[in-house]
Specification:
By secondary structure, this protein is an alpha+beta fold. It contains eleven helices and six strands. Helices cover 61% and strands 20% of the residues. A hairpin with a 5-residue loop joins strand 3 (180-187) and strand 4. Helix 1 runs antiparallel to helix 2 and helix 3 (55-80) runs parallel beside helix 9 (294-307). The longest helix has 42 residues, at 94-135. The relative contact order is 0.12.
Length: 371
Amino acid sequence: MDRYLIMQLLPPFLFGVGAFTSVVLAIDSLFELLRKVVESGLPIEIAFKVFFLKLPFVMAYAFPMSTLLATLMTYSRLSSESELVALRGCGVSVYRMVTTAVIFSSLVTVMTFVFNEQIAPAANYQATLTLEQAVRSDKPSYKQQNIYYPEYREIKQPDGSKNKILSRLFYADQFDGKRMKGLTIIDRSTENLNQIIVAESAQWNGSQGVWDFYNGTIYLVAADRSYRNILRFEHQQLQLPRTPLTLAESNRDYGEMNIVEALERLEIERLSGDRQKIRKLEVRIQQKIAFPFVCVIFGLVGSVMGTIPQRTGRGTSFAISVVVIFSYYLLLSVCGALAQAGIVSPFVGAWLPNFFGLAIGLILLMRVAQK
């Protein structure tokens, strides 16, 4: 029975992967690439390369939707042809029939996780680089602009409490992949002496572990805000953290990082102390972990809905799948926004849609099993 049901699930699943991938690619990438070919002179071969590099990212999102479509279509057809009635007549419970769909969707969950971690982020990032190099090959391409990196330290108060104050502020107008340009650094890390560094450019010296600053001025200010000294220089080496450069180099979008890379980025953001960026990244990481498990939820919901006696064709099953998918992603967006706003925790914001879908699936399953 399990082998038979899985063989029935495979064709609609593959159909769903092709259908949903085609629709999402056409909406998200194809029209934009065609516009760049016509307006920006993007070579056709580059457009095809970017198109195929974006396939894994879209397919990873198509797997859960295809799982829902496959289970709903398969179990609806078997129900309308009275095959499920025959199985129940042989003593097979609804729970046992749905177990096959859950096992199938669990395998899809593993496949989705592998795609999301090992294939999709790297391919999506490569697509972005390929497109930027092709479209902006005749223009200076700055990887980052307005690099802002604050550092904080804790000061223990006489009453035992701790107060967080700014220790160092690093700002650069832009980063061209090699040098920082237009720098201003406020350094308050040394007691009784503050310094303000203004420089035309700076470059990290990896061999010596210092920054090489060029064409700038250092203003030394005492703790009581009185003037100390002004030092103008053409080249000056300063021992400052490399973290601003790491932050500038880590310019990947959330969809271009796997969980390990996102956790590394989170550590960097925590050093900067930007709570909004930290919160957003924490939510994205939890969503990356939670997303593959929606395949199990969709497999459960689709199979249970399919076992309800009804006459539904492929078109009806597709329409029901679209409604369920839209409802899930709407709830996912709302919960993600609440988590980023700090109303709920990142864990709750990412996992609540899954828990809600699981509860609906189990309630439907118990009701169908009682009939």
